[in-house]
Amino acid sequence: MIRKAFPLFLVVSLISTAITAQKVVYQKGYFRYPLDIPAKLNANFGEMRPNHFHMGLDLFTLRKENLPVYAAADGYISKIKIETSGFGNAIYIAHPNGTTTLYAHMNGFYPDLAKYIKDQQYKLESWALDIEIPKSRLPVKKGDFIGPSGNTGASQGPHVHFEIRETETDKCLNPLLFGFNIPDAVHPQIHKLAIYDRNRSIYEQSPILIPVIKTSAGRYKATVPILNTDLIQVAIHATDQMSNAPNQNGIYKTILKVNGKSVGGFTIDRISYGETRYLNAHIDHKYKAAGGAYLQLLTPLTGDQLDIYPYSSPGTGVRIPQGAQVPCTIEVYDSDGNKSILEFTLQSIGKTPNAIAANTILMKADEANIYENEDIEVYLPEGMIYDSINFRYSKMDPGTGNVFSAMHQLHDSKIPVHGGMKIRIKANKIIPFPLRSKMLIKLKTNSRTIVKKANWSIDKFGAEFRDFGTFQLIADDKAPVITGLSNGAKVAGKITIYVTDDNGVVKNFRGEIDEKWVLFEQRGGSYTYKLDERCPPGEHIVKISVEDEAGNKSIQEFKIIR
Known about the structure:
Number of strands: 46
Distance between the termini: 69 Å
Oligomer: single chain
């Protein structure tokens, strides 16, 4: 069945005075720009990032922090999120038209909200928050100051991350469709064309990369060699740019036409956070992970569940009659309607038989897949891979250290896994009793190391992962290290504690003053308590408790003088 993209309706009048269950309209003029400086973007909606789409707009803040941020429309603050990574400090405002706006990486909050948040943090004894707020508690009007901009969370520099969501479904909508009058008279740029043999998995081949030639504003041509396949998949590398802004942004829409008929393409106008990891299916992930550009597929892979492809179904390709010369175009649009067109011709000499990979196991995207031997079990539920793979396994020496299995290489870390892959590893030697509750499974990929608590079942230790790579069973009996404060220290203003761990995971942190919890704000491996009425002048006992992923705990007490 062909999946249809959500239609765009632009209306002038407000359709409701209360939050309703009806579909959101892209109503131009309803929202104001959240800053009082000329509108300029660092990033747009749908831009591609590692493992996810960019789900909103990054608003330029003059490379500064603490610019005032304003509510984009009437509503009420419905949710607050505070975390060390991700959004950092984030405010959610629900609006009567069925949308919710999000303002992330904030440095702080306006006074009434700041007091409410602090009260909740002490009530829950948690600096990190993800809480709903009653509708009548914190109403706001369009243009009200809600807090200073910042650089908190996983921000790479000062900016405001701004989203518009459909409240009922929590789907993120493309904010540029609501009309913020951000200048854009620039055609999208098409950089490269890629062709694949759709008779084979995308992960078992390399793309045929074809340079494109710009012939005039918004017009491109490419020369495609004669193909050894009758069924193809097409991808492009394309970017967009806005007026008066040099940075490259993501594209909004494409249409692939073969003999004048629309057979492929996508429209990126609404995506949920539950779907955003399917970016890895929308692109040639193997090519990108090897250092290449983002190649966006114009027809979806078998395991791609994004609802952005209006002209094709998962697993389909484009059929090319043998010997025929077939004219094709790719139209590329930005959200302001600026368009570029790439023209090329396809010709096929027929289908080439596929080579069978030796010492591999075929795994399919639309099936559950299992690999097991005496040392390891791997289970991928249906939908965990996006296209078929010839799964490869190898076993390597364990190396030295507190290790209890060989290193197991599971396929290739450049091939994406959607999530929920279950790994179970058998120990290759007796585990001393004190270590049995301290076991971890460590994953090494090309770019990072991940550890997960290993749970014992029958004869193996197990955990869930969402990447291929090298897996090993290890023990961790070393507690985290606490530094930054000395006994008898005289303090003024704030206390900062630093925590390090051998495996880089601090699972729990708790700070107390005189046996009562106090608010330590986390940034990376540092935790800061700004001295307040809970620590009056005089002598106090600071108690710090920390736990890592394996359950090792460190507890230290310090006498301080304020």
